[in-house]
Amino acid sequence: MTPERIRRIGRGALSLAVVAALYEAVARSGLFPAVLLPTLPVVARTLFATCADGTMPMHALYTLERVLIGGALAVAAGLPLGILMGRYRAVEGFCLPLASALMPIPSLAWVPVFILWFGLGNTVAILIVFYAALFPMLLNTWSGVRAVNPLWLRAASAMGADETALFWKVMIPAASPFIITGLRQAFLRAWIAVVGAEMLAASDWGLGWVIFDAKEFLNADVMLAALAVIGAIGFAFERLAFGALERATVLRWGMVRSAKG
Amino acid sequence: MADALSASAPATTTTTTTDSGERWRAIARTAFPFIVVGGAWDIVAHLGLFPPRLFPTLEDVAATFVHLTVTGILPHHVLDTLVRLILGFALAGLAGVGLGIAMARSRLVEDLALPLVSIGAPIPGIAYAPLFLLWFGLGSVSAVLLVAFVSAFPIVFNTWTGVKAVKEIWVRSAQAMGADQRRLFVKVILPGALPYILTGLRLGLAQAWRILVGVEMLAAVPWGLGWLIFGAREFLATDVMLAGIVVIALLGLALEKLVFARLERFTVVRWGMMT
User: For a FRET experiment, which of A19, A177, A211, B30 has its CA 20 to 30 Å from that of A96?
Assistant: First the structure.
């Protein structure tokens, strides 16, 4: 560890400690009602208690299930369609205007419509996740396939690669940095969408529902605990899952350099 | 996502410049998928497979749209939403660009603020909504503050990256030519970082737009597009919802295409920072 890094971590920890202390001081000063601004030990105790009795992990599991199903559907639809759009002009000409028109609509705007069509519950949340994750997946795959260096394609065909080999050995690896970026953005969008959908389409389980439900009972400690869990899961996915995916694919193939510190 | 939009724009504009026949063909090509999808929707709606309340025909949606516009209800909703968006986004822009520049220029600020920003950023903005509602009450104040808070993150990150990415050689040559701190900042660092800052503002605005629609549903504001859609649920008024969604889509497109594309053309493209 370089001294530069130690200094950075030290200062980072210091700033977190200062902010925590400030928060604690304000919370204890009694300027605001204690229900609205719980002290950190209270939040920590709530977090621990809800984890220990299994409710918080259960909520997290429900939320993760919705994200994974919706995300898997979005990948299953967006990846092939994006590849087709990149390869065939007709598909591109048909799908691109539709995608550009639908993309600026926030996924949460569909929640009331989907509630009317499919009732409260899981279906709405999964469909909202699907909608949110579809466009990053679709558009990144599309640009990835279009950005494949034509020289590589010609070189591969000159060396006698057939369509299948061309597709699997050249096209997919070349487009993979874009596809992985798409997956990453899709997950981030899905993670936002699922929390919102759970709040609006109340369904008894899920981290978004916990936060929204806690509002009714003025349980700010439960809210902050759920926020911490949401942040931790999002962070873990972003850093661990996608970092590992990147190392196993594009970094190993030398498509991108590991510039990140 | 922004790349896709800007990538699609030149593809259509370059083909339209040659002559009017080409232009009409391009418009027809863009309109064709909408006609197909709209036609399919209308056929399903007319077949009566689903209750017409839940699956209205396009004529009904259009009639509702016209009715709401003429009576002034829709413009009022749009206006309130836009005011919230502009207030929240302006707050986010001021705070975000300021903090981003401070973080890039001072190592102390960077070390202090970066951990906080990195912890706050991965939490979905809408998750803060109930907390803001508890702290600031139902209504517009919570909505504006939440929009500002959430859209500040991409602005801070991009400004920070942009200022750090200004070429060292530009800074040194300006200093060698005798520029003082203030001129260095205004004439070199700010223009140099502007492409990044604009990207950050663009991402921030997209984020603000997405959050605003959601928070309007939760915050029980009397006017606003999010509330228009969510309130229509009580009356099974699917036509009102779809009309609202069309307006949301049009506004989103307009913000992206008109505001930012133009801003970019007048600044960074003209200065030759970007093509």
Answer: A177
Structure tokens at A174: 């070349």
A54: left (phi over 0), alpha (psi -120 to 50) or beta: left
Q: Which residues 149-188 on chain B approach chain A with CB closer than 8 angstroms?
A: none
The pTM of this model reads 0.81
Residue type, A249: T
Tokens of A258: 């590991």
> Hey, which residues 11-70 in chain B have their CB within 8 Å of chain A?
29-34, 36-37, 54-55
Q: Identify which of A26, A96, A22, A220 has the alpha carbon closest to the alpha carbon of residue B4.
A: A96
Write the ipTM. 0.77
**Core vs surface per residue A171-207: b (16+ CB within 10 A) or e:** bbbbbbbbbbbbbbbbbbbbbbbbbbbbbbbebebbb
Q: Does A26 touch chain B (CB under 8 A)?
A: no
Measured between alpha carbons, how far is B134 from B130 in angstroms, rounded to an integer? 6
Structure tokens at B204: 């921030």
Parse chain A into domains and list their residue ranges: 1-31, 38-251
User: Which CATH number is B56-269's, of 2.170.150.70, 1.10.3720.10, 3.40.50.2300, 1.10.287.110?
Assistant: 1.10.3720.10
Domain with CATH 1.10.3720.10 in chain B: 56-269
Q: Chain-centre distance of CA B205, in angstroms?
A: 3
- Kindly tell me the burial class for residue A159, based on how many C-beta atoms sit within 10 Å of its own C-beta (0-12, 13-18, 19 or more): exposed
Residues 6 or more apart from A94 whose CB is under 8 A from it? Answer: B32, B33, B36
Residues of A in contact with B211 (CB under 8 A): 106
pLDDT tens over chain A, length 261 residues = 577 778 777 877 888 888 888 888 888 887 777 777 888 888 888 888 888 888 888 888 989 999 999 999 999 999 999 999 988 888 888 888 888 888 888 888 888 888 888 888 788 899 999 999 999 999 999 988 888 888 888 888 888 888 888 888 888 888 888 888 888 889 888 988 898 888 888 677 888 888 888 877 878 888 888 888 888 888 888 777 777 777 777 666 766 554 443
